[in-house]
């Protein structure tokens, strides 16, 4: 099946990321205003979503309830941030918050983030990709559902421009180790602790913070692992 072939929404959500299909949006669940894009079987390409005049384009995979998306669009009004969320209920919630914030430089798309990067995002078009507290799927039989597996490397490397950044946070030491192993094995990325510290210093909405899971885990006293990986120049 090619990317252009018609396919049911369910099938798209299972391709690539092997996601479980979650409940569809329920009527009246929330008022997402004008910030929600339902990807369906044929999601719009990234370039159709980016407003004219944006100085940079970033993607957040799995924004959940949207705390980072709202903070990042408010902190950097010239940057367009697209949240790609697989769970329609969370996507609607995040889009509603974005709508209420009044920021027009962000959208929430319901789709499988890995697949969208693969077939709707032009090569070298992203300045940053944010992935905060991705589901660790600790059971052996669910490992294929993880976002950070070896097959995601070429997807991330293609979508990011040279010098662009992948920002990741997790509370899970085993998953953190796997992320460092996967990214560390790539000739396309270099871990950049200086950029990690710099972004944190810039404050809310620049990278990493705030997110709902971050708040919960900090309250629980868990250690948070944060990484910045720089896309190295193309050969
Ligand atoms: C543990 S939650 C973290 C939410 C948010 N980033 C935070 O830190 O509060 C993970 C989120 O990623 C979403 N997700 C998982 N795999 C995804 C994928 N392949 N594409 C898009 N969203 C995904 C889930 O639906 C969920 O909302």
Short account of what is shown:
With 235 residues, this protein is of the alpha/beta class. It has helices spanning 9-14, 46-49, 67-75, 88-101, 113-120, 153-159, 173-184, 193-202, 212-219, and strands spanning 36-38, 56-61, 79-85, 106-110, 126-132, 160-170, 189-191, 225-231.
What does the model show?
By secondary structure, this protein is α/β, with parallel strands linked by helices. It has helices at 9-14, 46-49, 67-75, 88-101, 113-120, 153-159, 173-184, 193-202, 212-219; strands at 36-38, 56-61, 79-85, 106-110, 126-132, 160-170, 189-191, 225-231. It has an eight-stranded mixed beta sheet with strand order 1-4-3-2-5-6-8-7, sandwiched between helices. Helix 3 packs parallel to helix 4. The protein starts with 8 loop residues before the first helix and ends with a strand. Residues 17, 19, 61-64, 84-87, 90, 112-114, 132-135, 147, 211-214 line the site of S-adenosylmethionine (SAM).
* Count of extended strands: 8
Helix/strand structural class: alpha/beta
> What molecules are bound to this protein?
S-adenosylmethionine
SSE string, helices as H and strands as E = HEHEHEHEHEHEHEHHE
Rg, alpha carbons:
17 Å
So how many helices?
9
- Which shape, going by the Cα principal axes? globular
* DSSP strand content: 15-25%
State the separation between the terminal residues, measured CA to CA: 31 Å
Low-confidence parts lasting 5 or more residues at pLDDT below 50? Answer: 1-7
Residues in helix, %: 25-40%
Mean model confidence by pLDDT: 89
Strand arrangement in the largest pleated sheet: 1-4-3-2-5-6-8-7
Biggest beta sheet attributes: 8 strands, mixed
């Amino acid at each position: 099946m090619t990317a252009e072939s018609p396919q049911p929404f369910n099938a798209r959500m299972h391709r690539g990321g092997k996601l479980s299909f979650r409940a569809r949006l329920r009527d009246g669940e929330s008022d997402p205003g004008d910030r929600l894009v339902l990807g369906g079987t044929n999601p719009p390409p990234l370039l159709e979503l980016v407003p004219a005049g944006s100085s940079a384009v970033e993607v957040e995979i799995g924004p959940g309830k949207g705390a980072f998306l709202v903070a990042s669009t408010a902190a950097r009004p010239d940057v367009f941030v697209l949240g790609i969320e697989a769970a329609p209920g969370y996507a609607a919630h995040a889009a509603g918050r974005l709508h209420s914030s009044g920021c027009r430089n962000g959208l929430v798309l319901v789709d499988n983030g890995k697949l969208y990067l693969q077939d709707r995002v032009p090569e070298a078009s992203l300045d940053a990709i944010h992935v905060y507290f991705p589901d660790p799927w600790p059971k052996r039989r669910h490992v294929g559902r993880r976002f950070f597996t070896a097959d995601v490397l070429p997807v991330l490397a293609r979508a990011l421009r040279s010098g662009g950044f992948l920002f990741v946070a997790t509370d899970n030491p085993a998953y953190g180790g796997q992320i460092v192993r996967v990214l560390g094995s790539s000739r396309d990325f270099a871990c950049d602790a200086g950029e990690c510290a710099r972004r944190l210093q810039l404050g809310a909405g620049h990278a990493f913070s705030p997110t709902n899971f971050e708040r919960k885990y900090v309250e629980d006293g868990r250690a948070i692992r944060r990484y910045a990986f720089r896309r190295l120049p193309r050969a």
